[in-house]
Amino acid sequence: LPFQARGKIDYPEQLLGLRYGNGDYKRPAFQDIWEKGGVFALDDTDRSDPSALTAFNDVMSSGWASFGDGSYSQKTEKTFIVASGNGPMLGETEGYTAANHHDAAIRDRFVFVHVPYNEEFERGLIPARFGYWADRVHAIRKAAQSIGAETVMATPRAVIQGATLLHNGIAQKRVEAATVWKGVDDDTRKQIERLAAAQGEE
Predict the structure, then answer these.
(1) Nearest to 161, CA basis, from 139, 182, 146, 144
(2) Residue 103's closest CA among 154, 151, 46?
(3) pLDDT tens sequence across 37-52
(4) What span, in angstroms and rounded, lies between the C-alpha atoms of 16 and 18?
(5) pTM of the complete model beyond 0.90
């Protein structure tokens, strides 16, 4: 199937198209997927402007969309819309302060599925000799999650970036500071390190 994606939505025309004053029409990628079929991925949904995304309500519930070129078309049977984000669209958290609180009407248009990290997939993204680094990030992640420390960046990016830095001869302590801790206060870091060490002893 054809695939299109875009990041957060700041105004409805980014999805539904815009007719300029000179008559030119900016056709959005979403319109192609809607009318011809395919997968449209809307990333950073929780960061989209709530009022802009509200214009999406009728589209999602009725299966019909009014586009900026004046057309009114029905979604094909082979059109699939997937939205993703770092949270359930309920506003900012300690780690994701740019997230917006969205209206219940738009949240009700989606089925929410939690997608956990795939640690084996992460290990496959780096050379096998740095598997110990992936294990370290995973241990820190689990410890941080156990106390709700969202500011700890034990993410897949930390696995990839850290392996690159280690490959270039950077000491692991510096790598951790640059990829995982990133300014986390000392007390939190020490608590997480103790928890991570205890996990390794189990």
Answers:
(1) 182
(2) 46
(3) 999 999 999 999 998 8
(4) 7
(5) no
